[in-house]
Amino acid sequence: MFWCVLLLSGLGLICAEEPFNHNERVIGGYDAEHGTWKWQISLQYGSDDWYSHICGGTLVSGSYVMTAAHCILSMDPSQYRVVTGEYNMLQDDGSEQYSPVAEIFVHPGWNGELGKGNDIALLRLAVPVYGNGYVAIAELPYPEEMLPNGFICYITGWGYYDNMGSSPTILQVSPIHIVEHSICSRPDWWGNIALKTMVCAGGDGVISGCQGDSGGPLSCFTDGAWRVHGVVSYGPAGGCNQVTKPTVFTRVSFFLDWINSLRL
Prior knowledge:
Helix content is 10%, strand content 32%.
């Protein structure tokens, strides 16, 4: 336990020296209803004796999970497990499935710089997930689909719910407004590090991702279905819910060819 606290604190110190925060979590959210966001997963890091939540993610097939590339702390699959059906981190809800990771696929364009994009990875599970009423495979958007400014989506995760570093035990959810690329890429917003391959949402100083939601889904109801349009990537250092500094997600619709080439 103490080792993990040191690890997460170290990441926070690194982020404070950069213009964005690597591990996002939900601020301004509320307790989700158990079994609602069935594609949300908890990515956990550790060993057989003890694992700790480090990031969120999305179930994209019975055997594959999508998360952020920067969530991959090691390329050794044995150091991770995926928990589907997770709700309350401190108790057994009877809905969880614990899956070892068999293989890790980081996007070939990822170079460790969040502002360069390609912050996406897929994990192949050693044991496929089975339907138990609390898990579902996420629907994805159409190729290169972009949502209009102000469109309401939802961010979910177990991240900090305030700038003091308080973490919830129950999955949090919050509505969050899309900020179109032409606005998010303005100099007084995120400037040239907001790429078209990214989705911006929030920036109102009230609702945002924050430390630990990284890799988690941006879920939007489009074309008659809930679809995951984004993977939580980065936000501002020094306080997550800042005006004109929205949470930034990897835009899933620009990576469908790569995703589909792997999740067979």
